[in-house]
Amino acid sequence: MDPLLLAAVAIGAVLVLLALRVPIAFCLGTVSALGLITFFSWRPGGAFDLERGIEPALTLIGSAAYSFVHSYPLSMIPLFIGLGHVAYHGGITTDLYRALRIWLGRLPGGLAMASVMGCAGFSAITGSSVACAAAMGRITVPEMLRYNYSPRLASGAVAAGGTLGSLIPPSLLFVIYAIFTEQSVKVLFLAGILPGILSLAGYLITIAVWTWRRPEDAPKPDTTFTPGDVREAVAGTWPTVVLLAVVIGGIYLGVFTPTEAAAVSFVIAVILGFARGRLTMASLVEAARDTVVQTTMIFLIALGAKVFTTFVSLTRVTPAVLDWLQSVDAPTVMVVAGLVVFYLVLGMFLDSIGILVLTLPFTVPLVTGYGLDLVWFGVIVIKLLEIGLITPPIGLNVFVIKSVTPSSVTLGQIFRGVSWFLLLDGVVLLLLLAVPALSLFIPGTVD
């Protein structure tokens, strides 16, 4: 069977299965296994021989799975996920939000700004957008509703703020991207700092403009805080500062590798939680259980994607597409624009991890063939996935916020709220595309 035809059939099968809501790990694993067996059993111009194809296919699946599972960077994924759950159960994220609420609460839209900044701080500890949206949504949305904030502003701000976990290091998406593209996790983490700060600043500006145009959506709280409250709030942020210093400062200064930073920060978070009396053995066990569930899900998806990548490379479909683009002399700008549209459309229907592992086997060779920087492209892809988290009709963060907020907040209100932030995301995306230095400046300062 012609390898290109086989690849086309396999890709079509994956899309059909995904449309039928089959879990993406099983889609990729099953289709790639059947594809490999067919590839080795049905050579072009020859007859189909199942016995000839099973052994090499199983051997290749086993070797690909083994090499992937023994990838050292994978070890930081459960560590950062666990760090996020421990930080939540240990009250670190709650204390951070309380301090921001006190500092910013009297500003127009101050509670929404505090929520977005709290999401940024949580993201810088955990690296998970979904975990950030879930944890901060439980804390901040009811608080804003209690002060008569518009449900659209309250829920939209947290849904958008939760996406910052995709760009601000340590980002789990950057870890997965690094593994599949063989790039440095450290360099990718550093590349996400300026774009993450730019997105955060844009969200704060969006809230300021929103409350300027519709002040009734964000009434000023009538609560006053004493100097003692302010001092207590400042004192409560020191665990967050310590963890940020270990994760970001330690990686940038070369004190820790990303994996070492994940391990050290996890241990510190556990120690701080118990020392402050905010973490118990029961909550630690619950955090461990949640970590295992989330890590297993990510590993299964990535493992299926690794086998699928192996199958795609054998069919040589990506070089064929690249040769075709070069034959029609497609300009680089058109190729990049096509990739942006491609990822935006996928982001409306699939989760971020699924998109990443499904598309990289095709897009990375295309990008390298046009001489584009893979670190810059990684930032662009992660930003596009970040946008997908709040884009209708799926918008995973929107559904997460809906699941953790009062029933009075409707799905339609959340989607209308995030539409303001989507406009800002479009502006930031254009800046990142036009000015690659925004992504490459900080990595360029490190040896």
Automatic annotation (TrEMBL):
Main localisation: membrane
Question: NCBIfam families attached here?
Answer: dctM
Query: What's the protein name?
Result: TRAP transporter large permease protein
Residues that span the membrane, as ranges: 111-136, 157-181, 187-212, 233-255, 261-279, 291-314, 334-362, 374-400, 420-442
Q: How does it assemble?
A: The complex comprises the extracytoplasmic solute receptor protein and the two transmembrane proteins.
| MF term (GO), any | transmembrane transporter activity
Residues of the signal peptide: none
Does the keyword field hold Hydrolase?
Answer: no
Q: Indicate the segments forming the TRAP C4-dicarboxylate transport system permease DctM subunit domain, all copies.
A: 12-438
Family, per the entry? Belongs to the TRAP transporter large permease family.
Mind listing the UniProt keywords for this protein, alphabetically? Cell inner membrane, Cell membrane, Membrane, Transmembrane, Transmembrane helix, Transport
Species: Caenispirillum bisanense
**Which function does this protein serve?**
Part of the tripartite ATP-independent periplasmic (TRAP) transport system.
The cellular component terms of Gene Ontology attached to this UniProt record, alphabetical and capped at eight, are: plasma membrane
Q: Where in the cell is it found?
A: Cell inner membrane
User: Its topology with respect to the membrane?
Assistant: Multi-pass membrane protein
